[in-house]
Fold each of these.
Amino acid sequence: MAVETDWIERLNGEPTARDAALADLRELLRTKLRHAFSSSGDAFVEDIAQDALLKIHTSLDAFEGRSKFTTWALTIAVRVGYTELRRMRWKDVSLDQLTGNANAVDASRTDSQNEPVASAARKQLVDDIHAIIEEKLTQKQRDVLQAELSGMPQEEIGRRLGSNRNAIYKLTHDARKKLKKELEQRGYSQEDLEPG
Amino acid sequence: MDLSKEKVDALLGFLKQTKDREATCEDCLTAMAEFAEKHLEGKSIPESLKAIEDHLEFCGECKEEFEALLATLREL
């Protein structure tokens, strides 16, 4: 097994050294992913280890040496694994089911009608939040926010919108900033934003 | 768009933590290995990684991956 300092050299080296390093790395990934994804089965772990190995090998230039190589490689492998798990878990759920843009029943649209009476201040805050969402956010921001609040991972939202997790994060960050600023302009303090 | 009480509460939780500048998921991936090693060594988190610490408080997906990474590293 390679020591930390020579992984990059071996992975970028001549074919024999490179193949040996890839085999070592594959074995390390298999062992560690088996632990991280113990409930997902050996076939899943084999697939993820192979996909991660390819991703790591093609991303070697991105390794900055700020951590051990194996820690960096495992970080990528864990993300590859969770990306696939989330894809499988959400594969049958459309964005429309969560945003109420389809004919399917969206429970969230009736939830608030069945809840206990809130204080006047709380009711005003909720009304203001709804008003700001309708008036200040774009339709795309509203859809993404609704999907995110329904528990859909940003990665999966991105997949359905032909985008990616990073872009969705930026989109929702902009939406949150806008919402927060508007609430502040309406006189709400940080303390007023405590979940009730 | 009508939000249930749970969703309003979740949104308020998000808003409380919202900052003008935040690390993205890509920033987090880039720095997660270094952050995880510092965390496991029990070292204080340097200023350059504070944004990652904040992101992990906020982003459920990155947090899930970070915790899995920590568990994996503890086995090394």
Amino acid sequence: MNAQNVDAPSAYFLAEVSNEIETHTLSLLVDNEPGVLARVIGLFSGRGYNIDSLTVSETEHERHLSRITIVTTGTPMIIEQIRHQLDRLVPVHRVTDLTVRAKRANQDKPLERELALIKVAGDGDKRLEALRLGDAFRATVIDATTEHFVFEITGRTSKIEQFIAIMKPLGLVEVSRTGVAAVQRGPEGL
Amino acid sequence: MTREMTGAEMVIQALKDQGVDTIFGYPGGAVLPIYDEIIQQEGLEHILVRHEQGAGHAAEGYARSTGKPGVALVTSGPGATNMVTALTDAMLDSIPLVCISGQVPTHLIGNDAFQECDTVGITRPCTKHNWLVRNVDDLPRVLHEAFYVATSGRPGPVVVDIPKDVQFATGTYQGPTPNPAAAHKSYRPQLKGDAASIRQAAEMMAAAKKPVLYTGGGVINSGTQACQLLRELVSLTGFPITSTLMGLGAYPASGDNWLGMLGMHGTFEANMAMHDCDLMVCIGARFDDRITGRTDAFSPNSRKIHIDIDPSSINKTINVDLPIIGDVGHVLEDLVRIWRSSSMKADEKAMKAWWQQVDAWRARNSLAYKPNNDVIMPQYAIQRLYELTKHRKTFISTEVGQHQMWAAQFYGFEEPNHWLTSGGLGTMGYGLPAAIGAQVAHRDALCVDIAGDASILMNIQEMSTAVQFGLPVKVFILNNQYMGMVRQWQQLLHGNRLSHSYTDSLPDFVKLAEAYGGVGIRVEKPGDLDGAIEEMVSVDKPVLFDCRVANLANCFPMIPSGKAHNEMLLPDEANDEAVANAISAEGKSLV
């Protein structure tokens, strides 16, 4: 939009365009049918959009609806495009930008959680330190031998990133993460 | 109506229940059960093409010229992959197309069976939606849903992939639901525009000093009613109107307010009006890169209203001030009603000054070319074709290239649905099958494919289809022996090094026509042109018309790549030096 149009007298006129890259969390309700995930992913790769994280699972069994949570980055214009392009897919029932919703409700972010399984192997002080830090991060040990631990940790992406970084010098072997699941704060649903 | 029948019978029944009278197809192993039903019924005519791509484009031509969905039937594997170009073409131009493809039996899917391919996987990005039907009980519902999805909202192509065992299986057929939009669980496009926004649009239009209407294929897709409303809006407001390639005919080319087509090869007045306007009303168009030129210099001083049925078209490339989501017909109906009921008027004084400016641009005569008494100029050939066919019911299709742009510039379209061209995808080989599709739907009409010598060879085999079904399509070839548009770009971008854009061994088109059982006509002198065109029109057979034109003519005016609307290259300024320097280093990387 052109600069001189910003003050145009209408409620429908857009806010000033920003070209800053933002991270948004989108929530999709889709028919759980063959190919639906391929449609969503194909749209992202075909149009050159980013996927930072993606989770999917059937959430309403009787209606065969799945919920897909996608974390993506782009300018506000691109993210708006992504939302509309997703909405255009026939098996997509609803697309909600949870980040926009949170901002509208004067919240910092939607509720976002990730689960990770983190395997750490080592002995001596390193092993003790890993266990102590696991405790500090409220990670649970779900498998262990005298040589290793597997931690289960839940939290925001930043917390998990931090925990993984800390475990690196302590004998990190491998990591498996679920990706972000998200809902809006407050009593309303999608 | 419910009744027990096989999957193959269901296909035929569903097509008939959807009002289909013609399908374009090509048989093969995985669709034999459906073909066995086709031969045992009446009421559904099957046109046998010579290549599946031809079936797709013929169905597109049928759809474009009738406003109804086109239907194609192909076999598995290569049958389906040959359809991909036509599906993509229909996707980009928003043409309703229902393609039914055979698939290997369900127990062989995933086995790399003979003529197996992942049809739904391959066609997923080039269809609006597609289905693999693994159970015959789902087939009737999916077939009816396919027609609903293809024709509602922003139209587009769909594929229904049916394994051979499902075609043989027996199940219960159900007819279409009376209100598919209400019945559909997720796809319900918004048709009515927001009333407050439409009022806002009317007020902006009334206040505008330098307005322009920029219309596109969405008006034609919305239907003849929408085109009528558009004409009414123009006469109520007195605004100048231009259109994209896809929207030609929605407003008559003979209309007083017509500026001609806009965009890369649009007229000077259309592009200058777009650049200098203070209000742009975009109706059913999508700010394609061939329209906008350089986006950061696109119409810098205007407010923009965008009416579109597809929310993803809004703010995709150009930010607009007032988006209105809805069907063009519905929105225009409300807009015209508000304009009338509130006795709104355009700013008369400002409009007078604006039209003076527009007329000054018009006087630049940007479509001018140097006439020639010895050689047929391609523009002249189109002009004569127009003059000699304009009083008939004529449908014009095109291939892709210079001839397509000249056709758009010099053939005047008075009505919607009479112009069939591949705009978005730019598919060479589109025109002949599209003309066949239009001729099937309009047996008494004159259907002309304006072609180039290179494009026509891409689907020339469809001459055989035209002859078999007695479809007297006329292929008007502007034969300059070059891929003219490629050559023009090589001249503009690559130091006139004409790499592989000259066709050394063109066939003798007259003999070729005769070989197919059609009629060939060759004309080389401007003086013989009229007589030859009249002969072509009067022949009741398919014709290949070999019109030998000036070899090195360029298509002007032109917005060179990377330039803005007000930086057009006009024909009288396009000397060798200007042409050589028209495109900057930055623009050279653009398409």
Amino acid sequence: MLTRRSTAAQSSERELTVVQALREAVREEMRRDEQVFVLGEDIRIGGSFLFTLGLLDEFGPERVLNTPISEAGFVGLAIGAAIQGMRPIIDFQYGDFIFTAFDQIIQQCSKLRYMSGGQVRIPLVFQLPTGASGRGAQHANSVETVFYSIPGLKIVTPATPYDAKGLFKSAVRDNNPVLFCVHKHLYGSKGRQLARSSISRGHVPDEEYLTPLGKGDIKKRGSDITAVANGIMLHRTLNVAEALEHEGLSVEVVDPRSLVPFDTELVIDSVMRTSRLVVVEEGSERGGWGAQLAAEIAGQAIGYLDVPIRRVASPNVPIPFSPALESAVIPDETVIRSAILELMEY
Amino acid sequence: MQTLSIRLPDIPDVAPLGAYDEDLLAEIYRRMVLIRQFELKVNELFLGGIMPGTIHLSLGQEASVVGACLALEADDVITLTHRGHGQALAKGVRADALMAELFGKGTGCCRGKGGSLHVGDMSVGALPAIAIVGASSPIAAGMAFAFKRGKTGQVALNFFGEGTANKGDWHEALNLAAIWKLPVVFLCENNLYGVSTHITEVMAIDYVAERASAYGMPGGTIYGNDPIVVYEAVRTAAERARAGEGPALIECLTYRRGGHKRDDPGTYRPQEEVEAWFKTDPLPAFRERLLQDARFSVSEIEALDTAVATTIDAAVRFALASESPAVASALEHVYAD
């Protein structure tokens, strides 16, 4: 599917999974800048999703720190190190564990620069596996949604290997805290093995490149309706869009890539051409980023809309374990397709 | 009340001052007076309805913060608490910029965006204060981590109160600092009360410093109203940290002269305890010791007092004359470029 690939110069057809692309990004940044280091639980053996696999061998225990189960402690430690000029990357086994460090992130990390009148800066990347993946409610949070309203944080949700690598390198070089939220099903790892085939595979060029934070990307051009989707929802939406293409409906699929800052302009430009908007996210409907986007489009571009804005999100419930229930709660291709068709028939 | 028997002050014999440099002794005294006069002036401005916000005065705890900060090098860093005015002045934050910050002025040390609860100045190694109990301990450990990694020889000192020793962040920070041998000094100002709650209600052991051994670091409880005692303890801990031997926990026993904050008269404290501790006021005690030293005369001490009074007056004039921050600055400093 060429539409999922970057339009950047392609020197080869090399394909990587998201986690392979991320590992390449972190290695490149650690080689480039001595101040970059990684810390987290069980990263000696690669962490939960193999993000840190092999890092210890190349960079040693001084720059690849296996931590105690002590999230508030090591998040605070990373903040202090960042204040003194280092660039920590915290690898969370599951993004869900970040809540035990809530104060450090919401009260300290996001505010110390502001409260000090700009005296400090905190370049710090949180590598956060997010979303539901058959593990029950306490390992299924869409963590990006929880932090979305907090000023001072940036939030990135890549969906492809190309974007994951370029955005991760930009996140490491950014002078602010960045929550880098990758859907658990997108890493391309299964347990402690790399998945052989996966929706997370895609082209990643050999040459170095950066993808700027705050720039969205049109993953599929279309003219009838705009669908904005991120993370794993982007892949589901693309599948729906491709199927509908055969049925004569042209869906434009926009990947915001970053939630904070958000490329609202790209969505407005798209809506000006299509006059219809559906927003798809995995997290609970209440207070999701889609609500903010809907409000902004209504406020800035309602004159271009022919029909109401439609949101697709999970209902406001914890994520259940039973595979039958989890798949009923998380938006699937059927729900996305229905939302698009409803707006077309409105 | 049996709980109080272990909480009356136990004043050790004072060490002779002869071994200490005259300039150091004068500076200890000057900074203690500066904090005392600053806090009294702030209290007056608050009660007069002139100063906005809220305040947590450090009156009575001057010896602990001054002894600790003067034992550090200029490029060492401290983290401050909600009771941070004294800690800031002890580390060298300018009185005028501090006063302006309390008034929320654009000339304040944090451009008016921090206020009393968040004072600090990175240029003198005072990380703007963290007002959430326990949260600063891992951050201090993190700064120490950067010092160790960069082989800078610097030390981080984490100020906290005894109530902090029941917070998870604090325990996690001690553990991380110990396992990675970070150059950090954990300095407890134990004033016996977390707001109104007495330490004996919330800890089943007598002293915070007992917890050091659980993390494999040295710890000790000292009399916190003698700046020389604190100075020596922090010097030893900082030298040890600089030598790569890791963190230490120092517990300074001291006492608030007022309530938790400005609208708290502190009436929950037993009279016997209050009277006993008030007799240990560190400022007149140290002044008396200086006067017994042949190198100091009454006129020299009074000259120091007068100079501080001039500094405080100038600070208040500076703060009152300063402009409020430009309204547009409310939207600045959210993100770094």
Amino acid sequence: MTDLLQHLQLGFSVVFSFQNLFLCLVGCLVGTLIGVLPGIGPLATIAILMPLTYNADPAGAIIMLAGIYYGAQYGGSTTAILVNMPGESSSVVTALDGHAMARQGRAGKALGIAAIGSFIAGSFATLVVAAVAIPLSRLALGLTAGNYFSLMLLGLTLAIVLGSGSLLKAFCMLLIGVIMALVGADQITGEARLTFGSQVLYDGFDMAVVAMGLFGIAEILRNLEAPERRPFVDDVVGGLLPNRQDMKDSAGAITRGSLLGAIIGIIPGNGATLSSFASYVLEKKVSKHPETFGKGAIQGVAGPESANNAAAQTTFVPLLTLGLPSTATMALVGGAMTLHGVVPGPQVIDMHPELFWGVVTSMWLGNLMLVIINLPLIGIWVKFLKVPYHLLFPTIILLCCVGIYSVNSRPTDVLMVAAFGVIGYLFYRLKFDPTPLLLGLVLGGMLEDSLRRGLILSRGSFWTFLSDPLTLVLLGLSAVIVISALSPSISRGRQVLAEDE
Amino acid sequence: MTHEVAEQPGREPVPPYARLEVIGGTTIIGIAALVWFGAINLAVGTLPNFGPGALPRVLAILLALAGAGVFIQGLVRREAAFERFEFALRPTLVIMLAVVLFGLFIRGGDFGLLSTPQLGLCVVGPLTVFIAGCAAPQVNLKELLVLAFGLTALMLVVFPDLLRLGIPPFPAILQNAIPPALGRETALRIAYAGYGAIALVLYLVFVRPDRRAA
């Protein structure tokens, strides 16, 4: 316990430097700014803004990225409540009761309770992250290459199964991602692989470029299909602060949401979405007046918002302790860390303690900033909601171009963003969700490396490779998950989730 | 297939070649073939020490199988018969044109088939915004023009000046013509102040009267 406090203290000493506070603040503000823009979810926001963080030092960059992440999430909830346009799947349920509250003139309260609930859940989740990080990374340090390989497979399996859409299509995307990770110089021989003679591909695919194309540009192309929808926004938001009765009504929901979210977030897969759905269902079950849900029940906002924020935080756990990103967003964060020379994994906590604890405490700080800075600024965010899309998207296009060019000063990066934009849009039209692709791209190199090392150690015998009990258990678990996902009852459940989105 | 087979009202069955999953599966198989072709010269190696070509080949086979699965689903599944592949070509082409122009001319260079001069953010910025803006279903050229100049001014302030990122602001010819006495920074500031002014004037002349009228 004293250890924990010491670590947190170290973290705060890092975060409370002028530069890092500033970066966190800027991250939260820009994140919210882009996040509230209609039709742009957190993933696209991070993909678009990632180049901005490249100038800072590693800790600063990750802190800023975390700020962008929370800001974007909060921005998504804001649009869900005010205009019933959830920016991403995890705020779909928020829109149900949140927007109902807004129509009753209680938009301010919905926004307020969302922020307060998120803050409480975020504080709790920060403690959870801090508490499980050390034991988990100690555990991870003892893992062999074979263990790691099977652990990655398990994580990827979970990510695919818990995501939405067709399993087979998700598998296709994952494979393409892993193959893309192999493009470029071979890790051992340095031979050019799958480059088709192109010098540009010899360095491999840059994650920022791929993500900006697949999620940023493609999202714009998606939005351009339909004629512009002018969101109708009321100027009157009402009082922001929930009164005592509201707090009393939602206290239970926030507590349950925090716990639920913190647990679900650690499991690979779309934790934030899953936990907000689970929390909504739970709140409806425990409520004495389930009939009020969907008609502006404050618990229906407080619970899911707390849950998805707690989950958003604990999704950092697999990345920071095992080096395994479990969502596309975490894949981006992991990519940014690697870019700064900090390879995510169990060694981070020992080798870069200031970075690790700085990031953990900055999560809490980011949440605090959201409450004290974003809530009073809500009027400004509402104005941004009114920016017409036909002026908005050219702005984002230019921002993407300038941003990605400034990272490496390589014109080919910009051309590649264009190409991945088309590919992302094509995948969307073909109903392939490119999220697993990004995970595959991040993990592909590690996957090959650990398989290769594992097989060298076992002298090429698959049997020796498999005979390690932990490897066997993890691989077995993946197999069980795949088989059970194919079973009729669960695949129906996945379908329901997909349709709700 | 006749129209009577249509079970869902208002939706007609799609011929197999235009079905979403058939095209999707074909695309995936195509990608797998490309990967296989790309890995053809790489050594496979042995199991204890597999070479650079091993994993690409195994993955290409898996990918082809998965793609074939999607393809077959498209032929067999009943709902698949109603899913047509659609693609909004015009906005996609326009946006691509905008981004590609930016990439080709921001610093210029040799891109294999063609080599391009550096035009810098001052020229490429407004062009990108303007062309991209034309991808919208309804285009308001006047507003777009204001945005193109205003936004470029803002980008010039933030990226080369405030963040000091190495993004070329001027065309190569102009850059060399800047008198040393003036200095690049001053030239940059003059440029964005000028662009800001242009945007303001355009707004006052073009956009505001329109808004008032509306």
